[in-house]
Amino acid sequence: MTAQSITSTIPDDPLDLVLDDIDDARTRIAADALRPDTDHRVGLELEFHLVDHAEPARRPDWPAVQALLAELPPMPSGSSVTLEPGAQIELSTPPRADVGGAVQALAADREELRTALAEAGFGAAPLGADPARPVRRVNPHPRYAAMEGHFSAIGCAGPGLEMMTATAALQVNVDAGPVAGWPDRLALIRSLVPVLVATSASSPYLAGRSSGWHSMRQETWYGIDHGRTDPITAGAPPERWADYALAAPVMLVRDASVLTPVTRRVSFGEWVADPRAIGRPATVADLDYHLTTLFPPVRPRGYVEIRCLDALPDRWWPALAALTVTLLDDPVAADAAAELCEPVAGSLDEAARSGLADPALRAAAAACAEVAAAHCPPSLKADVERLAELLAAGRTPGDELRHVAETRGPLHLLEEEARA
């Protein structure tokens, strides 16, 4: 049966329309990739590992997590509160006018979350990876069950489950800017990624073990299908995103409330070209959902998601958010960052593995932090200056976390940050 022969049976909902062909899919992806904007708004998302103070070595069970979430008060700055597969809690702020406002909003909601959890006997640790507890999926949502099934079927069950259940990130969302500036803006972000990864690397332990990587969170992404985790290539951003999405493997298929894992590698482009590859034609809704299963370090969602940062303790994440946005949105800082990061633009793997042990990354990170300290909002200047001093000494926030894990144990690190 061809896609055209069943079009008349599709409901009027535009999301249920069958995609005509590859060109139709490509056009839709490119059209929605970025939105022109000159407001320089900023949104922040921070994930935390949920810890029961009475039993810190055990992940909380799902009924307890649901009950806990149901009792949380509304966040004063309007952040949404969601749960990840391993019962990680995520705070996501609404967009703010600048990074100062976004940090203030997230900090206020973080404090509200901290207070509410403490009253219930829980804590939340913002670390790039759960350093101590065994990997286990807690959230039974069908999406996560299907993801787990897909990863298992294609041979990356371990990294897939680790990524889903034992990692946490600081995500920085920024406006795309004017159309004419998209190639340069995305090129700058790509060149910044290794510096941001090396600076934020704060996951030297995962599930009680150390692989030697400074960011074991980032290491888990390398163990998953590279078609959904590698960086998007250089070029016109909307078109390159369309190429990436069409070449990426389909993870799962959603029919009403049923989500079925795809157990062999089928790209979305192959599905559009031949409905028999999945068993039915691909629709607009399928395309929209497919895009949510792609995890490059920088992802266009109308705005730009910078997804490559490890979550950091409260004493450090405001500085990292300020550094990231300042190097993008302040014109003088952006020009300096483009030049400073050019020598290390292709060093993403090395950044995750070695952090600032790499001399070129160390020099670029220290210089970028100095630039950011000189141009960031006054309310965040002290935070960024403290981070700049640390980087100038060749150290990162992850080094102090590693020291605690190695001298007192990974579980002590988790408990300490959950009570901070």
Automatic annotation (TrEMBL):
Its EC number is 6.3.2.2. Pfam families: GCS2. It comes from the Bacteria. SUPFAM superfamilies: Glutamine synthetase/guanido kinase (SSF55931). Transmembrane segments: none annotated. Coiled coil: none annotated. GO terms for biological process: ergothioneine biosynthetic process; glutathione biosynthetic process. GO terms for molecular function: ATP binding; glutamate-cysteine ligase activity. The keyword Zinc does not apply. Pathway: Amino-acid biosynthesis; ergothioneine biosynthesis. Keywords: ATP-binding, Ligase, Nucleotide-binding. InterPro entries: EgtA_Actinobacteria, GCL_bact_plant, GCS2, Gln_synth/guanido_kin_cat_dom. It is an enzyme of class 6 (ligase). It catalyses: L-cysteine + L-glutamate + ATP = gamma-L-glutamyl-L-cysteine + ADP + phosphate + H(+). Gene3D superfamilies: 3.30.590.20. Catalyzes the synthesis of gamma-glutamylcysteine (gamma-GC). This compound is used as substrate for the biosynthesis of the low-molecular thiol compound ergothioneine. Belongs to the glutamate--cysteine ligase type 2 family. EgtA subfamily. This is Glutamate--cysteine ligase EgtA. It comes from Nocardioides ginsengisegetis.
